């Protein structure tokens, strides 16, 4: 009930984006070790996953946050996979109104509770801008191991009509 009383942030008359449906800018830190498999073995490290493919795509900047859709489609094509091959998704969610069209247009509406942002996304956890990519990727790798799935997809919406998607494969 309290969420319904929050004022819209951008359009005071018919807007739906409020503080309650937006990710909070937050502090955070994340780190990843990214290296070749042979280098990991030289260092005595056990690789967790490999980057199977990735894509960075531009789209109409007036459609804020939609970039993950074409980026995901391209990354999946480059990996020789389809959406149905992906066991878990970790998708950046700047706003609820931003992620929902992405989920819908990737054909994932029926799988939200089973496959997408299973620990909560940026709306629940916060949006530490400088480390969101590492945070999302690390969360995805942890989920892939916990759920014992081979493939995961991480996405980021980026301002001015950009999107990035990375397909990870467990090793």
Automatic annotation (TrEMBL):
A Pfam entry, by short name: Thiolase_N
GO CC annotations on file: cytoplasm
Top EC class of this enzyme: transferase
UniProt keyword list: Acyltransferase, Transferase
PROSITE patterns according to UniProt: THIOLASE_2, THIOLASE_3
Keyword Acyltransferase appears in the UniProt entry: yes
Listed SUPFAM superfamilies: Thiolase-like (SSF53901)
All residue ranges annotated as the Thiolase C-terminal domain in the record: 45-170
Residue span(s) of domain Thiolase N-terminal: 1-38
Family assignment from sequence similarity: Belongs to the thiolase-like superfamily. Thiolase family.
The protein, known as: acetyl-CoA C-acyltransferase
């Amino acid at each position: 009930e309290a969420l319904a009383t929050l004022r819209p942030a951008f359009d005071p008359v018919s807007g739906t984006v409020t503080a309650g449906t937006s990710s909070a800018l937050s502090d955070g830190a994340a780190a990843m070790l990214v290296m070749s498999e042979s280098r990991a073995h030289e260092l005595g490290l056990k690789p967790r996953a490999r980057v199977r493919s990735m894509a960075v795509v531009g789209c109409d900047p007036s459609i804020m946050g939609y970039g993950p859709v074409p980026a995901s489609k391209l990354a999946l094509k480059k990996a020789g996979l389809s959406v149905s091959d992906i066991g878990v998704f970790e998708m950046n969610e700047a706003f609820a109104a931003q992620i929902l069209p992405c989920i819908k247009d990737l054909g994932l509406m029926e799988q939200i509770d089973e496959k997408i942002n299973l620990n909560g996304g940026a709306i629940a956890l916060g949006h530490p801008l400088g480390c969101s990519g590492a945070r999302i990727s690390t969360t995805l790798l942890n989920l892939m191991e916990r759920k014992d799935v081979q493939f995961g997809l991480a996405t980021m919406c980026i301002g001015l009509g950009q999107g990035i998607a990375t397909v990870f494969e467990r090793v």
